[in-house]
Amino acid sequence: MSPGLPILISIPHGGVGIPEEVAGAVALDPPALSYYSDPASERLFGFKAEVKAFASARVSRVIVDLNRPPYHLPPRRRDGVVKFQTSLGAPVWKEGMQPDIQAIHRLLLRHYFPYHAKLDSLLDSRKIAVAFDCHSMVPVGLPGQPDEGQPRPLICLGNNGDRNGHPRRGALCTCPPEWIRQLAERFRDEFPGAGSVTLNHPFSGGFISNAHYWHKGIPWIQVEVNRSLYEGGNSSPQQGALLDMQRMERLKEIIRGVLSMWYMEVVKEDSRTPPLFQE
């Protein structure tokens, strides 16, 4: 990837940290926190020296989920900004120690809003042409999710559109349809199997890409990488995320090459891209 590309990389789910103020109340141990994160995603998408803007989180997503609206609160929202249960139904908090609304507010003030403020600042100050919200996903849809029990693609790209990247009725695409289709084609060159690369299924984009596109108008794409590409089959909440570092490094190089080529051949050459980025 060329140095200083006008790209923002956001990695909101790579952290495994527990805020000091709630450390004694969390029921999950380090292997479980690792498993319920996007394991090693900061390393997988670690292009900090090659892009103009980079943001990653330290806090675990099961404590504060930066990719959820701040008003999606427990217990009404099981998979909201603060969670009482994991995606597999395990309790996040020790019995009788779930945070009350005041404690949730403090968590958001200290860990949620600063991350979004940082994204705002980077988008304002670094002359960004396109932003990526970067994630990993378990290989099979989890209980209670729309794709429950179904094998997932190796790569899923989301722009809040339909399965061809076009706008859905009543929804706004976070990047031009042809951009995301071209990106998908470049990933398919690397992963050529049928259904290996999908658009907006099973994930079309979360709060980060949608909210910050609405706020700034700078294109966003959510990237989901299947954990089977770099993780052992025995990963579990008990064992943690069992990573194959050699496979991860190869995958990182593939992602680096695809994003760089796509930016130079598609985004930079698009007439809608401001002249500043076409020089």
Give an account of the 3D structure:
The structure is a single chain. The protein is 29% helix and 13% strand. It is α/β, with parallel strands linked by helices and 279 residues long. It has one domain (5-277): Aminopeptidase, CATH 3.40.630.40. α4 (177-190) packs antiparallel against α6 (245-267). The longest helix has 25 residues, at 101-125. The two termini are 17 Å apart. The model has no long low-confidence stretch (mean pLDDT 95).
Distinctive features:
six-stranded mixed β-sheet, alpha/beta, 6 strands, 13% strand, single chain, 279 residues, 6 helices, Aminopeptidase, 29% helix
Percent helix among the residues?
A: 25-40%
Query: How does the helix and strand content classify structurally?
Result: alpha/beta
| CATH architecture type | 3-Layer(aba) Sandwich
CATH hierarchy, class: Alpha Beta
Can you summarize the main beta sheet? 6 strands, mixed
* Arrangement of strands in the largest sheet: 2-1-3-6-4-5
| Helix-strand pattern | EHHEHEEHEHEH
Describe the oligomeric state of these chains in a short phrase: single chain
Number of contiguous helices: 6
Question: What fold name stands as the CATH topology?
Answer: Aminopeptidase
Tally of DSSP β-strands: 6
Work out the strand percent: 5-15%
Q: CATH H level: which superfamily? A: Zn-dependent exopeptidases
